[in-house]
Amino acid sequence: MSGFASLRSAFCAALLGGALLCPQGALAQGAAAVTLGPSGLPLPRFVSLKSARVNSRVGPGVNYSVDWMYNKAGLPMEIIQEYDTWRRVRDADGAEGWINQSLLSGKRTAIVAPWQRGKSATVNLLDGPAGDAGVVAIVEPGVVGTIKSCTGQWCQMTLGGRTGWLPQSQLWGAYPGEKIKD
């Protein structure tokens, strides 16, 4: 195991009590160059909002004006920069702002096909990680769910009380090829 992998594993075990694996982000496919933020975690990476009311600011501090308020706990965010206790995030629509780390969670969530919102498209939630698996539910674009695991091609998710599988390419909240273990 490389020094970086050992350090990452130790950090993840300390942070999460060894109960879960850390999100792999850019590390999933053994990428040669990994950017680490001051926190020691990879950049970019996905997180979610802890609270139902979270201010996004134009800069990293309470003295910066609020640019946007998010009103949905569990909404996935992509951390793209770190400064002290502040995280510059990007949402599924591409909007960016600064949120205090205390308002962010490592719990992985995803939005189903946000690029299809407002269109008459739907996505099938399947009972297994295969295109010919049975349909558990039909999901509208823009629905937010909790990621249980991802294989790199498929993610098992819970959406509105139903658990099933979606193609990873239909989600915003997991990187292409990223593997996530529950």
Explain this structure.
The chain is mainly β and 182 residues long. 8% of the residues lie in helices and 40% in strands. It has one helix at residues 3-16, and strands spanning 35-36, 42-43, 45-49, 54-57, 66-70, 76-83, 86-90, 96-100, 104-105, 109-112, 123-126, 135-139, 144-150, 154-159, 162-167, 171-172. The strands form five sheets. A five-stranded antiparallel sheet has the order 8-7-6-3-9, with no helix packed on it. A hairpin with a 2-residue loop joins strand 6 (76-83) and strand 7 (86-90). The model is unreliable at 1-32 (pLDDT under 50).
Q: Distance between termini?
A: 22 Å
Number of domains: 2
Give the uncertain stretches in residue-range form.
Answer: 1-32
Q: What is the second-level CATH architecture of the largest domain?
A: Roll
Q: Mind telling me the CATH class of the largest domain?
A: Mainly Beta
Index terms:
mainly beta, 1 helix, 5-stranded antiparallel β-sheet, SH3 type barrels, disordered N terminus, 182 residues, 8% helix, 2 domains
Map the helices and strands.
Layout: H1 3-16, E1 35-36, E2 42-43, E3 45-49, E4 54-57, E5 66-70, E6 76-83, E7 86-90, E8 96-100, E9 104-105, E10 109-112, E11 123-126, E12 135-139, E13 144-150, E14 154-159, E15 162-167, E16 171-172
Antiparallel strand pairs: 1-2, 3-6, 3-9, 4-5, 6-7, 7-8, 10-13, 10-16, 11-12, 13-14, 14-15
